[in-house]
Task: structure prediction
Amino acid sequence: MKQNMKSNIVRKIGIAFISLLVLCLMAVLVAFGILKIRTICISTDFSGVYENDKYRSPVSISGIGLVKQEISCGYAVIEMFAKWNGNTDITEQSLFDEYGKIVTSTGKAFEKEMNRQFSEYTTTMHKYLKNEELIDLVYESLAAGFPVPFEWAALLGDEWTLHYSLITGLDVPNDLVTIMNPYGYVEEIGLQEFLNRTSFEAYKKMPLFLELGFAFGIFEKNTIFVAE
Result:
């Protein structure tokens, strides 16, 4: 009798475990399916911007000093934004000393920290923008006098990473986006490459934990942070 009870318990535990695995697998498949749809939806034709008179005049923000990250790209971008805003007290080191850790690892956390450090502005994260929407918001923000923090795929040596940087210029007629990259240099790239990287389509051999992060909404594609 006791042996039968133990067998039933073991069988029920086994069934529950298998059921849980199946549910987890289904959740992962659904998440990746939704991610694929969202990626397709943002990958729109943006060629019309080249003929749009709205973007005829280049827009840029001058006088921003490049900060090479020593602690994190998110903190380095916040330091660059602070210096542009005339605040030399906010630095990578001051942010790390305040928290004792990095608190800008996700888009929502970066948005929260931007609003905390720059309470005179409201910073809004815009995610999964269609290509032409992304270009338009960048243009509008730069035209209003604000540099644009954003998420994208960037190379550190030969390794692709998820990275924060700062857009300081957009010249649509000449197909040029100017970016302050905390890896230590200024990038000037075309719109197609820019969008390949904001959509993370440029990311080669993405680690599974990052793929899962995108699938479950921890990280985002075509994402910028607009201050106003």
